[in-house]
Write a structure and sequence with these properties.
- This protein is α/β, with parallel strands linked by helices.
- The chain is built from 16 helices and 27 strands.
- Strands 3-2-7-24-25-26 form a 6-stranded mixed beta sheet, covered by helices on one side. A 6-stranded mixed beta sheet has the order 9-10-11-12-14-13, sandwiched between helices. A 5-stranded mixed beta sheet has the order 5-4-1-6-27.
- The two termini are 27 Å apart.
- Bound molecules: zinc ion.
- Zinc ion binds next to loops.
C-alpha cells in the first residue's frame, strides 16, 4: 500500500502529551497516519515534503469570529485604518465615485475609538457621497452611522425615526435632528431597508474571508451567529454556506451558530414538548468535518465599551448605569430552555457579570434538566467574570470564550469603565486553566484583529494600548496560548477527537511557521510568519514553498512524473 505524503525535517509541536515534539508526519486520506514513522513506514509515502526545519503546529481554530461579516467587509469600503474624519469623507467620496447616482455607499471597519470618539457628520457625508445614501458599519458591531440621504430613505419607507427603539437608540443632535448614529437595535432601521443580502454575495464573502484565514494559519472557524438577529445577513444564510462548500469556496472548516431569532416553535407528537428549532427539527451537530451546525447563539447583553453590558456594580463614571439584559430575564430563560430541549447547544453572549449570572443559571438548569447536547454549552466573551462565577462555570463544565485581543485594542477604555477591581476579573485566561476550565482561542473578528499569532501574543502579554498590564494574574504562557488555539478550541467545539493535535487519526490540518512561537520573546510571538497552511492533507496556502515531491523522484531523480490517469469518460 502506498501512503499519500511524508512531511519530514520539521520541528513539530504536536499538542499530544504522549509525544509533544516530533520530526516527521505520515499523512493519508486527509488524516495523520503516523508521527515519526519508522523507516519502513516512511518508505511507503508516494510524496514527500522537506519542511527544511520549519515549525509545524496544528491548524489554528478561532471559535468566535464573524466570517460572513468579515468577508463582506473585504468587499466594502474600508475604514479600519483611517486617522481622521477627513480621511473618512475621503474614503466615502472615492467609493461613491465608482457607483451609480442612487447606489448605497457601504463602508465598514469604522471605530470612533481611533478618532477619540469622533463621529462623522451627516451633512459632510451627504456632500462626500454626492447625494448617495451612506451606511457606515462600526467595527464594534453595536452601532452604525448614516448620512442625511440614508435617513430620508428610511423615513420615505415609512419608518418613524423619532419614535423610540427598544434596546437601541437613534441618537439626536442638539438641533433636534438625528445625527445619523444608530445604536444597537436601531440598526434594524437600515437593515430592514437593505437586508437580506443575495446568497451569491454571502458566498463571495465566505470565499474572501476563508481564503484570508488560510494566510494566517487558520483551518477551523466558528461563525458566531448567522441567519437572524442584527448579526444575520439572510434568513437563508446557512444555504450560502452549503453552496459555498459545494462550489469549493469554503477554504477552512466551519461551524456556524444559528441566531436564536431564526428558530421558531416546533410542534411534534402529543407526547413531545413544544420546542423551538429549525423546520424539520434540524439541530446542533448536523453536518460533516467541513461544515457542521453549531450551537444556537443567544445575546443576553450588549458591549462593555458601549456600557450596555449588564454588570452588578455600576460603571465607573456612569452613575446608576448597570447596562441591561437584551430581553426580559424570564423570556431569556424560556427561549434558551426551549431551544436546548430540542437539541440545540447554547452559546450565550454574556459580557457583564450580571448577564453571566443569568447565563450560568440557565445553562446549568438546561444541562440538569435535559442532559448534554451534541456540542458543549458556552458563554461568549466574559468581560467581567467574578471568582465565584469561575467556580460555577468549572463545576458545570461550561466553556468560557474570552477575546484577549480586546485588551490590546480597547484595554484602556475597558479598564476606565470597570475600575481596578473588576479589571482583574476581565477576559480571564490563567484562572480558567487553574480551575480546569477549557480555554479556547478566539478573536471576534472583525470586531478585533483575528490573526491567531497576534491574539496569542495578547494572551501572553495582556498589554493595553497605553502599555498597562490588564489583569496581570491572567497572563498565560505562549505554550498555553498555542494550546488554547488548538486543543482548547477543539474541545470548545466538540471536535477534540479529530482536531487540535497532530497524532494518528487526527485531521491533517496544520501550519508551517518560520519560528517556534513558544520559545521566542513574548513581544515577538506576533512576528511569527505563517509559511504554509494545510487543510485535510492539502496545502492550500504557500504550496510553492513546500512542493510535495514524488518519492520516486528522490530515489531515482530521472524518473518522469506519472501521467494523469485517464478514464473512459474523459477519453
Ligand atoms: Zn461576536
Amino acid at each position: 500500500m502506498l501512503v499519500d505524503l511524508l512531511i519530514r525535517n520539521a520541528h513539530i509541536l504536536t499538542q499530544d502529551p504522549s509525544r509533544p515534539v516530533a520530526e516527521s508526519l505520515l499523512i493519508h486520506d486527509g488524516k495523520i497516519l503516523a508521527v515519526d514513522p519508522d523507516a519502513g513506514a516512511a518508505a511507503l509515502a508516494a510524496r514527500t515534503i522537506d519542511a527544511a526545519g520549519a515549525t509545524i503546529v496544528p491548524g489554528f481554530n478561532d471559535v468566535h469570529a464573524h466570517t460572513v461579516w468579515f468577508g463582506l467587509g473585504l468587499m466594502e469600503a474600508g475604514l479600519g485604518s483611517v486617522g481622521s474624519l477627513d480621511e473618512v469623507y475621503d474614503v466615502i467620496g472615492k467609493a461613491a465615485a465608482s457607483l451609480g447616482p442612487k447606489e448605497w455607499v457601504i463602508a465598514s471597519g469604522f471605530s470612533p475609538l481611533l478618532l477619540d470618539g469622533g463621529q462623522p457628520d451627516r451633512d459632510l457625508l451627504d456632500a462626500a457621497a454626492g447625494g448617495r445614501p451612506v451606511w457606515i458599519k462600526h467595527s464594534s458591531g453595536h452601532a452604525c452611522t448614516l448620512n442625511g440621504v440614508a435617513l430620508a430613505l428610511i423615513e420615505a419607507a415609512g419608518a418613524d425615526i423619532h419614535a423610540g427603539v427598544d434596546g437601541g437608540a437613534v441618537v439626536m443632535g442638539p438641533d433636534g435632528r438625528p445625527t445619523g448614529l444608530l445604536e444597537e437595535n436601531a440598526m434594524r432601521l437600515v437593515q430592514d431597508l437593505l437586508l437580506p443580502y443575495p446568497l451569491e454575495a454571502i458566498e463571495r464573502a465566505l470565499d474572501l474571508a476563508t481564503t484570508h484565514y488560510l494566510s494566517e494559519g487558520i483551518t477551523s472557524v466558528t461563525d458566531a451567529g448567522i441567519a437572524g438577529g442584527w448579526i444575520g445577513h439572510s434568513p437563508q444564510e446557512f444555504a450560502a454556506y452549503q453552496n459555498a462548500k459545494d462550489k469549493g469556496l469554503l477554504s477552512v472548516r466551519m461551524q456556524p451558530m444559528i441566531v436564536l431569532d431564526a428558530l421558531r416553535p416546533l410542534q411534534g407528537h402529543a407526547s413531545d414538548a413544544v420546542t423551538s428549532g429549525l423546520d424539520t427539527g434540524i439541530r446542533t451537530g448536523l453536518g460533516d468535518d467541513w461544515l457542521r451546525l453549531g450551537p444556537v447563539k443567544i445575546f443576553s447583553d450588549g458591549s462593555l465599551l458601549g456600557s450596555t453590558a449588564y454588570v452588578t456594580e455600576e460603571y465607573i463614571g456612569c452613575t446608576h448605569n448597570h447596562g441591561y439584559l437584551q430581553m426580559d430575564a424570564e423570556k431569556l430563560r424560556d427561549a434558551a430552555l426551549r431551544a436546548y430541549s430540542s437539541g440545540w447547544a447554547v452559546a450565550m453572549h454574556a459580557i457583564g457579570d450580571h448577564a453571566i449570572d443569568h447565563a450560568i443559571d440557565i445553562l446549568t438548569e438546561a444541562q440538569e434538566t435535559f442532559g448534554l447536547n451534541a456540542l458543549p454549552n458556552r458563554i461568549e466573551h466574559g468581560g467581567v467574570v467574578r471568582p465565584d462565577q469561575l467556580d460555577r462555570i468549572a463545576e458545570a463544565g461550561i466553556i468560557l470564550v474570552p477575546q484577549p485581543h480586546f485588551i490590546t485594542e480597547f484595554g484602556d477604555g475597558m479598564a476606565r469603565l470597570l475600575g481596578p477591581k473588576r479589571t482583574l476579573w476581565s477576559y480571564p485566561g490563567k484562572s480558567l486553566l487553574n480551575k480546569g476550565v477549557i480555554l479556547p482561542g478566539s478573536s471576534d473578528r472583525p470586531v478585533s484583529n483575528g490573526r491567531p499569532l497576534d491574539v496569542m501574543q495578547s494572551f501572553v502579554e495582556r498589554l493595553t494600548p497605553s502599555g498597562e498590564i490588564y489583569g496581570p494574574a491572567e497572563r498565560i504562557t505562549a505554550a498555553e496560548a498555542l494550546a488554547a488555539y488548538t486543543t482548547g478550541s477543539a474541545a470548545a467545539t466538540g471536535t477534540q477527537d479529530i482536531k487540535g493535535r497532530l497524532s494518528p487519526g487526527y485531521l491533517a490540518d496544520l501550519v508551517f511557521l518560520n519560528q517556534d512561537p513558544t520559545t521566542v520573546e513574548s513581544s515577538a510571538i506576533g512576528a511569527t510568519r505563517v509559511l504554509a497552511t494545510m487543510v485535510g492533507g492539502d496545502i492550500r496556502y504557500g504550496a510553492d514553498k513546500f512542493p510535495p515531491r514524488l518519492r520516486t523522484e528522490e530515489l531515482e531523480p530521472a524518473l518522469p512524473l506519472q501521467p494523469a490517469p485517464t478514464t473512459k469518460d474523459s477519453a
